[in-house]
Amino acid sequence: MNSSYAFYSNLSARYLREGEKTFEDICRRVAWAVADEEEEATRFFDIMISLRFLPNSPTLMNAGTDLGQLSACFVLPVPDSINGIFDAMKNGAIIHKTGGGT
């Protein structure tokens, strides 16, 4: 498997959202989702597309979507009870499913 195939396979599986076909589409979605104004979105898009900076994976996956989870790291309390332990495990699984970590 060549590295170009691996890149596009990973891009498609993890980051492309409905209607997106390219890395440029991802950068555009993210830039417009996190910027407060057009000039800021344009600058952010430019630094992402040039690979001078890329935000974390949850931002690339979720910015501009209904989920909107942009954080990568979460700390979960684990109560000292069976129900509390299993609730923490469930919440951890949901966080991991959306690209975050615990």
- How would you state the average pLDDT, rounded? 90
User: Which range does the strand content fall in?
Assistant: under 5%
Radius of gyration: 17 Å
Classify the helix fraction into a percent range.
55-70%
Report, as a whole number of angstroms, the end-to-end distance: 32 Å
Q: How many beta strands in the DSSP annotation?
A: 0
**Total helical segments:** 5
Assembly form of the protein: single chain
Described by the principal axes of the CA atoms, the overall outline is elongated
* H and E string: HHHHH
Low-confidence blocks of residues: none
Assign the structural class, choosing from mainly alpha, mainly beta, alpha/beta, alpha+beta, or little secondary structure. mainly alpha
Largest sheet: none
Task: Characterize the structure shown.
Helix content is 58%, strand content 0%. The protein contains five helices and no strands. The longest helix has 16 residues, at 82-97. The relative contact order is 0.11.
Q: Could you outline the blueprint of secondary structure elements for this entry?
A:
Layout: H1 3-15, H2 23-34, H3 38-49, H4 57-62, H5 82-97
Helix pairs in contact: 2-3
Main attributes of the structure:
single chain; 102 residues; mainly alpha
Condensed summary:
The chain is mostly helical. Helices cover 58% and strands 0% of the residues. Helix 2 packs antiparallel against helix 3.
